[in-house]
């Protein structure tokens, strides 16, 4: 038995928070606890987890679940983005440590893969979507066959219907390049406008619409799902299987998009995938984050029968001018996309090799990322 000796975290550009766990025998594992815009809060939670977990055993299979349950249940207050993001970093690192010790990819410890390649997509368009034609062509040259873009700029609760027309034109432009396209409403669109926009987009067959309404409105999402033929996707702002359960029970969502860095890591994402399969709901994990989150998602994607498509943050607008998913790893070829597909990694653990020297250098003086915000013409806050 080798107890946890040290839990470290590293804030690195552009907006990621990496976690490293070392046991008393020198075995290590890496996780990711990125929570965009709330880095310091997650760091505080990781400090508290370190007090609780250092000294606990990390080597054998039962202990990952024991530690996960301790992190989730033993603080009285449960769930939410801060606690679950910190727990995600711990959980992913423990799985990486264990699988490396046994010399196998994590997916072998999850029961073994059901596929050798994964369908993937990348972002185009930015926070204020534009120039999608050139960006679509660039993604095609990188090997992608599917993309995602924001539907709109910021909107009022009731805006002019004419503000929605540009969304339709962007979708038509991207589809004309031969790409499938998901359209992310990003929670920016309130109910009165969301119904109109979904109906305008429907004839042009988006791959899915994402967060057509905020997940805090499950009754409205259920109503919308009965009015349109487009698959509805959401899940990035849901933080556990308990948060997701109502959307499965209402049959309002066709595609679940949990974020492995926000839902409690590999352990909880695997449980969510199995729950979703029982409701005939596809899994398409949310991941506009770093390389560790992506590699962790891939481990669960590999073993999930209902996996559909994986988001990749390669070249996403948040990364411009700072770092990308190749920056902090020694095997960037892991992210090579061909014919819209990504090969499973074969190496032990997460399948990527972290460049610890570069990570430690990057964390020096790294500032916490702050979420952008939108304001309307009257100075009111609008959903970003």
What does this structure look like?
This protein has 384 residues and is α/β, with parallel strands linked by helices. It folds into two domains: 4-104, Enolase-like, domain 1 (2-Layer Sandwich), CATH 3.30.390; 108-349, TIM Barrel. Helices cover 36% and strands 16% of the residues. It has twelve helices and 15 strands. The protein has helices at 39-53, 61-73, 81-102, 106-109, 132-141, 165-176, 191-201, 218-225, 241-249, 265-278, 291-303, 356-363; strands spanning 4-12, 16-23, 28-32, 117-123, 146-150, 180-184, 208-210, 232-234, 255-256, 282-283, 310-311, 337-338, 341-343, 374-375, 381-382. Strands 4, 5, 6, 7, 8, 9, 10, 11, 12 and 13 form a ten-stranded mixed sheet that branches. It has a three-stranded antiparallel sheet with strand order 1-2-3, sandwiched between helices. Helix 10 (265-278) runs parallel beside helix 11.
Helices and strands in order, then pairings?
Layout: E1 4-12, E2 16-23, E3 28-32, H1 39-53, H2 61-73, H3 81-102, H4 106-109, E4 117-123, H5 132-141, E5 146-150, H6 165-176, E6 180-184, H7 191-201, E7 208-210, H8 218-225, E8 232-234, H9 241-249, E9 255-256, H10 265-278, E10 282-283, H11 291-303, E11 310-311, E12 337-338, E13 341-343, H12 356-363, E14 374-375, E15 381-382
Parallel strand pairs: 4-5, 4-11, 5-6, 6-7, 7-8, 8-9, 9-10
Antiparallel strand pairs: 1-2, 2-3, 4-13, 12-13, 14-15
Helix pairs in contact: 1-3, 2-3, 9-10, 10-11
- The total number of structural domains is 2
The CATH architecture of the largest domain can be named as: Alpha-Beta Barrel
CATH superfamily label of the largest domain = Enolase-like C-terminal domain
Gross geometry: globular
CATH topology of the largest domain: TIM Barrel
The total beta strand count reads 15
- Could you list the spans in which at least 5 consecutive residues all have pLDDT below 50? none
Structural class, please? alpha/beta
Mean pLDDT, to the nearest integer, reads 95
Q: Give the helix level as a range of percent.
A: 25-40%
Q: What is the terminal separation in angstroms?
A: 47 Å
**Number of helices, where a helix is a run of at least 4 consecutive DSSP H or I residues:** 12
Radius of gyration: 20 Å
Pfam family, one: MR_MLE_N
InterPro entries: DgoD-like, Enolase-like_C_sf, Enolase-like_N, Enolase_C-like, Galactonate_deHydtase, Mandel_Rmase/mucon_lact_enz_CS, Mandelate_racemase_C, Mandelate_racemase_N_dom
GO molecular function, one term: metal ion binding
Domain Mandelate racemase/muconate lactonizing enzyme C-terminal: 129-231
